[in-house]
Automatic annotation (TrEMBL):
It holds the Pfam family Lactamase_B_2. Gene3D superfamilies: Ribonuclease Z/Hydroxyacylglutathione hydrolase-like (3.60.15.10). Signal peptide: none annotated. One of its GO terms (molecular function) is hydrolase activity. Residues 7-190 form the Metallo-beta-lactamase domain. Keywords: Hydrolase. SMART domains: Lactamase_B. InterPro entries: Metallo-B-lactamas (IPR001279), RibonucZ/Hydroxyglut_hydro (IPR036866), UPF0173_UPF0282_UlaG_hydrolase (IPR050114). The lineage of its organism: Bacteria, Pseudomonadati, Bacteroidota, Sphingobacteriia, Sphingobacteriales. It comes from Mucilaginibacter agri. This is Metal-dependent hydrolase. The keyword Membrane does not apply. Coiled coil: none annotated.
Length: 226
């Protein structure tokens, strides 16, 4: 599978012949200034929770691409009220099949509110089964034993996990999350964007190596094959 990183927790995976985009936060991110938001491809946009650093560019990209926007019911309702027409609700525990494959929403341990201060429902992650392989995006979360349930539903090729600590898991807990989910390939997200989530890249890479795993920290705007 091909994964393109757009900075912070925004990335896309090309799987099942479709561009699956996650948590669009590009235009306000100084580290992603080289990315042309209007050139980002998306057939589906998955939103893990309502914080501004995960939804800022949803409307813009959805308007450009007519991508289907998915999130929990409160996000679904909020996006509808903000003029996005192609939407679909999915709550933790639920799954739906689309033309790319099947997606299941799973628990994430994190706070969630919308930029206007309204309730954004519960945070979530997503697990995907596609003809090209299976993967897990944890969203913003702390380590939780619920992650051990994921391999019961899908054997994963890789996981996308937050590693910036402070507001989410750090490197140590992300390694444990990888063990829980049965992967040895992890793409790190949610780091460096703000001063309080900056990490030492070499120390993070070495910690994963010592655990017998590979950590990918792609350059913003780059595409990698996993």
């Amino acid at each position: 599978m091909k994964l393109t990183y757009y900075g912070h927790s925004c990335f896309s995976v090309f799987a099942g012949g479709k561009h699956l985009l996650f948590d669009p936060f590009i235009s306000p991110n100084e580290l992603a200034s080289s990315v042309d938001v209007d050139a980002v491809k998306a057939d589906y946009i998955f939103v893990s929770h309502g914080h501004y650093d995960h939804i800022t560019d949803v409307e813009r990209i959805a308007g450009n691409t007519n991508a289907m926007v998915l999130g929990n019911y409160e996000l679904f309702d909020w996006f509808n009220k903000n003029g996005i027409k192609n939407t679909h609700p999915i709550n933790p525990g639920g799954k739906f099949s689309f033309d790319f494959g099947t997606v299941k929403s799973v628990t994430a341990i994190h706070s969630s509110s919308l930029p206007d201060g309204s309730y954004a429902g519960v945070a979530c992650g997503y697990v995907f089964k596609t003809a090209d392989g299976n993967f897990y995006y944890a969203g913003d979360t702390g380590l939780t034993l619920d992650m051990q349930l994921i391999p019961k539903w899908a054997k994963l090729e890789f996981a996308v996990l937050p590693i910036g600590d402070g507001l989410t898991m750090g490197v140590e807990d992300a390694i444990e999350a990888a063990r829980f989910t049965g992967v040895n390939k992890v793409v790190g997200v949610h780091y460096d964007t703000f001063g309080f989530i900056k990490i030492n890249h070499q120390e993070a890479l070495e910690a994963f190596r010592e655990a017998g795993m590979t950590l990918y920290l792609p350059e913003i705007g780059s595409t990698i094959e996993i």
